């Protein structure tokens, strides 16, 4: 069933699929329309494990938020946030200041609507290719109380950036942040040289929308993240990060191309 409250937000078009609403549907949310559900189901027909992997990624984000809260972080800056629904960072860290950001104006408008007048959250426009400029904005500094020892979130971002853009993104955050800051990131990989017609069609969907979709090896990801350093626990598969049993991921979930997702909490020493 469509969300009537969502349809009343200025600029929201219930007849055109939207990436953030597709993601919300995939996670089991309620902020989507029939056109979003159809688009998501088409993605699932190509790569059926998409729903499972994305739900694990959201679980990793919540787990990372809990761990960093216990480490004493009270300011969280999240990039390419999507919709800040009830399972996002601010619900895990109700006492922290959480800054969400995205480049899509409709996602931002919807996000602001969902957050309402919560004084400990903000939703701002940010192109992650210019993250350094975003962090230096006066309104960002004001919301963060001038704090630069912060926790960053970069969940499911790296595949949409070129290697040069990834390197700049991570360097921008590192250069701005104070020592002791931490960065939660996830990486998607597949086996080199393996592909299937459905996988190629899946990747082609993003390319038709004008999006880059590039997977790197784990070694390449960690190089692109430099000079951030993996913290205690190092890099884990998302299954390990969530403490799930070995059999939770099956060969079918790897879609014939060896899909694997990793999670890591990086730190600036």
TrEMBL record:
Classification via Pfam families: Methyltransf_19
Gene3D superfamilies the UniProt entry points to: Vaccinia Virus protein VP39 (3.40.50.150)
Protein's UniProt name: Methyltransferase
């Amino acid at each position: 069933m469509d969300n009537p409250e969502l349809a009343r937000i200025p600029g929201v078009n219930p007849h055109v699929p939207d990436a953030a609403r597709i993601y919300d549907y995939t996670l089991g949310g309620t902020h989507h329309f029939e056109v979003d559900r159809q688009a998501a189901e088409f993605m699932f027909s190509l790569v059926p494990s998409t729903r499972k992997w994305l739900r694990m990624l959201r679980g990793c984000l919540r787990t990372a938020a809990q761990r960093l809260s216990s480490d004493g972080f009270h300011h969280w800056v999240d990039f390419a946030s999507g919709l800040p629904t009830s399972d996002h960072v601010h619900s895990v860290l109700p006492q922290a200041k959480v800054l969400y950001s995205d480049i899509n104006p409709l996602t931002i408008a919807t996000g602001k609507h969902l957050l309402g007048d919560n004084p400990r959250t903000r939703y701002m426009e940010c192109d992650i290719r210019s993250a350094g400029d975003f962090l230096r904005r006066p309104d960002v500094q004001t919301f963060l109380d001038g704090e630069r020892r912060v926790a960053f979130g970069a969940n499911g971002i790296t595949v949409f950036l070129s290697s040069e853009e990834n390197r700049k993104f991570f360097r921008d955050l590192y250069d701005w942040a104070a020592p002791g800051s931490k960065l939660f990131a996830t990486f998607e990989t597949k086996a080199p040289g393996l592909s299937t017609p459905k996988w190629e069609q899946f990747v082609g969907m993003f390319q038709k929308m004008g999006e880059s979709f590039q997977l790197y090896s784990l070694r390449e990801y960690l190089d692109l993240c430099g000079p951030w350093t993996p913290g205690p626990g190092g890099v884990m598969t998302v299954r390990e990060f969530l403490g799930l049993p070995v059999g939770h991921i099956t060969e079918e979930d790897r879609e014939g191309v060896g899909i694997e997702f990793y999670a890591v909490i990086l730190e600036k020493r």
